Amino acid sequence: MPELPILQESVPRQPSIFDSRSLADIYREVQELYLADNRPWVVGYSGGKDSTCALQVIWLALTGLESSQLRKPVYVISSDTLVETPVIVRYIDTTLQRIREAAKQRGLPIEAHKVQPIVQDTFWVNLIGRGYPAPSNKFRWCTDRLKIAPADRFIMERVAEFGEVVLVLGVRSAESATRAQVMSFHRIAGSRLSRHSSLPNAFVYPPIESFSVDDVWTYLLQVKSPWGNDNRDLVAMYRNAQAGECPLVVDTTTPSCGNSRFGCWVCTVVTKDKTMQSIIDSGEEWLEPLLDFRDLLAETQDPAKKRQYRDYRRKTGQVSFIRGTSTPVPGPYKLEFCKELLRRLLTIQVRIQEAAPPGEAPILIHDSEFHEIRRIWQMERGDWEDSVPAIVRSVLQRDLDWVRDDQAVFGAEDAEVLKEVCLEHEVPVHLVTQLIDVERSVHGFKRRYQVHRRLEAVLSQEWRSEADVVAEREELLDEQRP
After folding, report:
1. Can you tell me whether residue 44 is helix, strand or coil?
2. Stated pTM of the model
3. Structural contact between residues 337 and 279, judged by C-beta atoms closer than 8 angstroms
4. Are 121 and 234 in contact (CB under 8 A)?
5. Domains in the chain, please, with CATH?
6. Residue 250: left if φ>0, alpha if ψ -120 to 50, beta else—which one?
C-alpha cells in the first residue's frame, strides 16, 4: 500500500484542522466512504483552491487502496459556461488533460469531463438572441442556465445509470455562516453525507468541510499535486487576479460568482471587474478588449441609459410601470442594439485572436450560437432582413452552412415594402410581421391547433408608441391624485 504524504509542521497560526486530525485520518475517512457502497462519485472541480484541495484529498486517498478495491468510477466535472476568462479556460483544459493522463497511468478509476450549457441556454443566445439584459443582482438569469443546469444534467445522467450518486464538493463551513447552516440542514444523521437540496438520489460529501482557508493553502503548498500541476502556479494565479474561487454551482444554495472571483469575463453583477483588470495588469494585455466589452454591458444597467438600449415593453409585449410613476419598466434589449452587440463581439474576437499568444486564440461565440440567434431573430423578433449571416460575413469574412427555410422566405425588400404599407395605413409594422410569422409557423399543418389563440396573444400586446402609453399613464395618475 503506497505511503501517504505527511503534512510537515508550519509556522504557528490560527487553529487548524491538522491540530486534531492527521492526513492519514482524513484519507482513511475518504477510503471508508468510497468502499462503503457502489454509488459512483462525481467530484466538482472549478480549478480554484478549494476544489483543487478536495480533489487532491480524494485522489491521494484512492492511491492508498488496492487495485481490486477501486471498483467504482469517480467522475471529475468542470463547468465551462463558454464565457469563462480565457486564461482560466487554458488552465482548466490543461489540468483536465493531466488528470486524464495521470489517472490512466496510475490505474485509478477517475474520468475528467467538462460540462457546458446547451445552445438554447448559452449567454450569447439569451443576451444577444432573446435580448436578456446584462445580469444583475436583481436579475441574475445566467447562473441557472450556464452553471446549475449543465452540472445537474451530468449528475442526473449518472443517477439514471447507477440509481444514486455521491457528489463530492470542495465547500467549507468556514466560508460563511449561511454556508455552514445549509450544510448542516441537509446532513444525514450519523453520516458524513448530506442529501442534495434539489436532486433526488444525489448525496453530497464535503471532504474539506472543516478546513480553514489557511488549511487549504497549507495542504496545497506542502502536498504535491498528484496529476503534475504545480500548486505554486495556483497561488500566483490568485495573486495576479486578486480573486477568490468561483465554485462549481450545482444548486441555488451554492454561492455563485459576482465578487471579483475567477469566472465569467462578461459578469456585470460586480461594479468593477477587478479580477480581469488584475490579469491584464499582470501581463495579459491582449485581453483588454474583453474588459471594454464587459464595461459596455455594465453601462446598459445605468438607470439613466436603460431606455436607450432596452424596449419599453416587457418580453410578453405588455408594459409595466415603476410603482407610482409613468416610467415603463425596461424590457429586453432592442433588436438593433443586439445587432450592434453581435458586430462588436465578433470584432473583438478577431482582435484578440490576432493578439493572443500562439495556440491560445479563444473563440468567444460558437457557430451553433449563430444559428440559434438567427432562428430567434427570424421567428420571434421579426428580423426579415436575416441579419446574422450578413453580420458574420462582414466581420469574420466567412459564411456558415446556413439553414434555408422551405416555407415562403421574406427578405429585406419585403420588409421595406411592408414598412411602406404599414406606414400608409398607420399600423405597427412589428404587429404585422408577428402575425405573418405566426401564420408561417403553422403553414402546412393539417391541424392548426391553437393558431387563433396565438394570433390573439399577438394582438393583445401593447402596440401603441411609448409616448402614447406614457401619456395615458400620466392621465391616470393625475386622476388618482387627491
Report:
1. strand
2. 0.85
3. no
4. no
5. 17-241 (3.40.50.620)
6. alpha
